[in-house]
Automatic annotation (TrEMBL):
CDD domains: AAK_CK. It comes from the Bacteria. InterPro entries: AceGlu_kinase-like_sf (IPR036393), Asp/Glu/Uridylate_kinase (IPR001048), Carb_kinase (IPR003964). It comes from Nonomuraea soli. Residues 1-274 form the Aspartate/glutamate/uridylate kinase domain. It catalyses: hydrogencarbonate + NH4(+) + ATP = carbamoyl phosphate + ADP + H2O + H(+). GO terms for biological process: L-arginine deiminase pathway. GO terms for cellular component: cytosol. GO terms for molecular function: carbamate kinase activity. Pfam families: AA_kinase. This is Carbamate kinase. Keywords: Kinase, Transferase.
Length: 311
């Protein structure tokens, strides 16, 4: 089976944690324990978030007195792919000796006229209280928005259209390589009328890119691993209940928050609707159980979908 796993930013850095490298490396090592189990049994492609990390690098660049202007977000996105990709590469190599693993810088095409450029929605960097966020926004020209009980900087998040390096990734996977790619949703780029690529200032949603890439690579399963065991009905209320098996149709009838579960549900629904294969949301350390159909929220084209025979 061919599986694409999208790792949540939470996997690497919990909200409120100090973004020190050693803390994130330890989190990567924890994530890789479960990913290594998947890689031992299946062809595996891994993508990861970069919201917290790209914010750290943006602050660093903005504070460098030697620069005349801060690095743009496409460059910062590539930096996060290098940094997180390196941590994952090393952890995977240590967990899977003898296995071929590669982390690659990956670009994702977006539309230059995507309306998202006028309406920033992607949370980056650390959380602030409202007053501090608004002060920083005024001082630095940021847009800030509420993220749960906190506030965070937001940047445009255009829709991914295609991962530029898709063919190469397919070749690597067919050759038995475990590939880490499209980190942070891929570096956002546009292509001009002469076919030339250039970066744009944005951060793409890694779940939407993951869904698109899983489809393009003809994956049999698309997993989003995060910090909750299942998608919940009535999340955050006394009536909340876990959904163990559902369909895109049912999920689309429920409202999910734009900044967290919403894009995951959209990404999952798109994959299942387009491919007829299974997708799931679940906890980081339960990847194998999710693939066995005993953990996570499993999403299939219809409620009578024969889980065992397909997995
Ligand atoms: N209906 C829901 N079911 C489960 N979790 C939900 C729901 N709605 C919102 N959430 C929140 O979504 C979070 C996961 O999204 P997010 O923080 O963006 O993940 P990641 O950084 O791992 O990609 C959970 O920690 C939970 O607080
Ligand atoms: N790029 C992206 O979607 O990052 P997070 O998962 O960290 O929000």
């Amino acid at each position: 089976m061919r599986v694409l796993v999208a790792l949540g930013g939470n996997a690497l850095l919990q909200r409120g944690d100090t973004p020190d490298a050693d803390i994130q490396i330890a989190n990567v090592q924890t994530a890789v324990k479960t990913l290594a189990q998947v890689a031992e049994k299946h062809e595996l492609i891994i993508t990861h978030g970069n919201g917290p990390q790209v914010g750290v690098l943006a602050l660093e660049s903005a504070g460098d007195p030697n620069l005349t202007r801060p690095y743009p977000f496409d460059t910062l996105g590539a930096e996060t792919q290098g940094m997180i990709g390196y941590w994952m590469l090393q952890a995977l190599q240590n967990a899977l000796p003898g296995r071929q693993v590669l982390s690659i810088i990956t670009q994702t095409l977006v539309s230059a006229v995507d309306p998202a450029f006028e309406n920033p929605t992607k949370f980056v960097g650390q959380v602030y209280d409202q007053a501090e966020a608004q002060k920083l926004a005024k001082e630095n020209g940021w847009t800030v928005k509420p993220d749960g009980q906190y506030w965070r900087r937001v940047v445009p998040s255009p829709k991914p259209q295609r991962v530029v390096e898709t063919r190469l990734i397919r070749k690597l996977v067919r050759d038995g390589v475990t590939v880490v790619c499209a980190g942070g949703g891929g570096v956002p780029v546009i292509r001009d009328e002469n076919g030339r690529l250039s970066g744009v200032e944005a951060v793409i949603d890694k779940d939407l890119t993951g869904s698109m890439l899983a489809e393009a690579l003809e994956c049999d399963a698309f997993l989003i691993l995060t910090d909750v065991p299942r998608i919940m009905r009535d999340f955050g209320t006394a009536q909340q209940s876990e959904i163990s098996h559902t369909t895109p149709h049912e999920l689309r009838s429920i409202d999910f928050p734009a900044g967290s579960m919403g894009p995951k549900v959209e990404a999952i629904c798109r994959f299942v609707e387009t491919t007829g294969d299974m997708a799931a949301v679940g906890k980081l350390d339960e990847a194998m159980d999710i693939l066995d159909g005993t953990a996570g929220t499993i999403v299939t084209p219809n409620a009578t979908w024969p889980l065992e025979s397909t997995l």
